[in-house]
Amino acid sequence: MAKVGPRNLLEVSRLTGIPFTTVHHRVAAVESKVTELARLHPNVAKLGLVRLVVLVAAKAGLEDLVTQALRIPEGGREGRGYWRVVERCEGAFTHHSIQIIPVQFLQHFREYISTMRAMNLIKSFRIVRTDDSRQIFPDFSSYSSGSGEWVFEWDGWLQAAKSAAPAETIKDSKPEVVGFKRVDLEIIANLEVNGSKSFMELAERMKVSPSIVKYHYDKLRACGVAGAFDFQVWPYPAEVSSFHEVMLDFTDKESMNRFFSVSKKLFFLQQVAKVLGRNSLIVRSRIVNSQVENLFGFFSELVNAGQLVSYSSVRINMGSRLAQTVSPELFDDVSGWQWDVYRNLLELNKL
After folding, report:
1. Cα torsion at 22, 26, 31, 37 (round to 10°)?
2. Which residue of 169, 193, 269, 342 has the fewest CB atoms within a 10 Å radius of its CB?
3. CATH entry, 44-131+322-350, from 3.40.50.1370, 3.40.50.300, 2.30.110.10, 3.30.70.920
4. Which residues have a Cβ under 8 Å from the Cβ of 350 and sit 6 or more positions away?
């Protein structure tokens, strides 16, 4: 399903050799245990948007206001805006945020964050520009269905990350904005909530015909905007897990590609994103609490082995997580993406 999409169960049956009725039954069983099994993960760069990882350290006592401030551009404190994720974290910063900003307004956004600092809402900040994140689907070769346990092969992973030939490469993607309309963004937003929605369901929600939905969806798939889905399948429940966002700075491209190749085996990693213009990756880990020490020991050994120059992390408070889809209402078919500098600063001043 991760390869061919969540709807194409006939193709899943063909690829796996599992009878279609069994595929349908097992998928239905999994879907009954999660809110939405699959969610569209759009390539936002093709929509003229830049993905930013934003870390800020709030002034003591102003943490809630900073959460509101990160949600203002371009929707106001309670509006939709360009933010994708805002969550509290522990470490050198108090907030971790993902923002997708139109390329032409990137400097406006940087100035907005600088204004937050000038107003003494935050003490410091860091903005990192990355490619779209890629989901790492759990590698079940480390799972024993007999014991119901996951096996942490730290020594084997370490050796592979130190010396194995890179099987894959990760590099900066080339900006390639495709032609799109607001109706395309509406389809994307709906599928970001539930990637398994039928064309009929989407058509009813959008008040258009199913044929229009199919036409635009097929176009989005063909141009790579709707090329990937995130599956809500994780090795451990959140209640016994620790979540970290980790920046890994590698010594060279080969070391980075070697780790990227090995990352597909690291079932406790959820996502990986390439930092643009650098030999660096940002990874999101979801690991059982008892293995946190081994996780950072693993990174430390990679520094000792000369694969990493350094690493840094923040621990994410998932209970504080706010998330949303792309915002079609910020786009106009004639004038494109919208940004009102005065309105954003006015909303910030109201805080």
Report:
1. -90
2. 342
3. 3.30.70.920
4. 77
3-state secondary structure of 346: helix
Contact 3, 135 (CB under 8 A): no
Instruction: Tell me: pLDDT of 2 over 90.
Output: no
- CATH class of the domain at 182-228: mainly alpha
Phi/psi at 175 (5° precision): -60, 125
Given the structure tokens 């020490």, which residue do they identify?
293
Query: For position 7, what pLDDT does the model report?
Result: 79
Strand segments, DSSP code E, in the chain are 38-41, 49-58, 83-90, 95-102, 122-130, 134-135, 143-144, 149-150, 228-231, 241-250, 269-274, 280-288, 308-323, 331-332, 336-337
The domain ranges of the chain are 44-131+322-350, 134-172+232-320, 182-228
Q: Select the highest-mean-pLDDT range: 136-145, 171-180, 253-262.
A: 253-262
Gap between the Cα atoms of 110 and 168, Å rounded: 33
Is the CB of residue 319 less than 8 Å from the CB of residue 242? no
Q: Do 44-131+322-350 and 134-172+232-320 agree at the fold level? A: yes
Distance (Å, rounded) from C-alpha 44 to C-alpha 38?
18
Tokens, residue 339:
């940004």
